[in-house]
Amino acid sequence: MPAPTSQATSDLATAFLRELGDIASGGLGGEAGSLPEPGSTEQRTLAAVLQGISDFRDRMKSKSVREAVPALLDMADRIRPVAPLAISNLAMCSKVDGFGNYEVVEARFASGREFSIAIYCELTGFSSRIGERAMWETRLSQEITLVDSSGQVVWKDGPSPVVDTCRNRRRDFFVARVIRLPGTLPPGKYVLHSRIVDQISREAAAGALEMALVGEK
Prior knowledge:
Elements: H1 6-24, H2 41-60, H3 65-79, E1 86-98, E2 101-104, E3 108-110, E4 115-124, E5 129-130, E6 136-148, E7 153-166, E8 173-181, E9 188-198, E10 204-214
Parallel strand pairs: 3-10
Antiparallel strand pairs: 1-2, 1-4, 4-8, 5-6, 6-7, 6-9, 9-10
Helix pairs in contact: 1-2, 2-3
């Protein structure tokens, strides 16, 4: 779907603020004709946000603020898939034990010998859907390339599939992949690129890390 024009975005923002004012003054929000007819991702997202705020307000009438917070968490779950795919964290590691649990290494290695390294990649905006056996399924592919200081690709791995299934919809997601770089690379500065493609939404995201290969003195 094409991106909305600046005028269309402005119209949506005006309608959204009008609806917020209606909710704040005690109205229901989301009345017919107040927002454009649903059809775009932007419109559906604004409607979900308004519904979450309205639910939060309604719960606060009989509960504490803390007890009303789940309404906002439910809203976040509804709009989470709308966020664009992005690599929020990328690191070179000696070990990865789980999400956010990894050991970073200095991106400086000896040239003239093969070596292995784990590439840790956290993602936001990934898509999930119900697949076989009523499991939530996330499907990605990852390609890793190494570029030298002249911009030449000197090494490439993938794209390789990443498939994850879970009984509950994941809020956090990471990819950890061990790569083995050859010992034929000369000393110098390099940039390692990680490119992720979401096989469900077809969106792509990329991240990069600088590294150096040094010769023995």
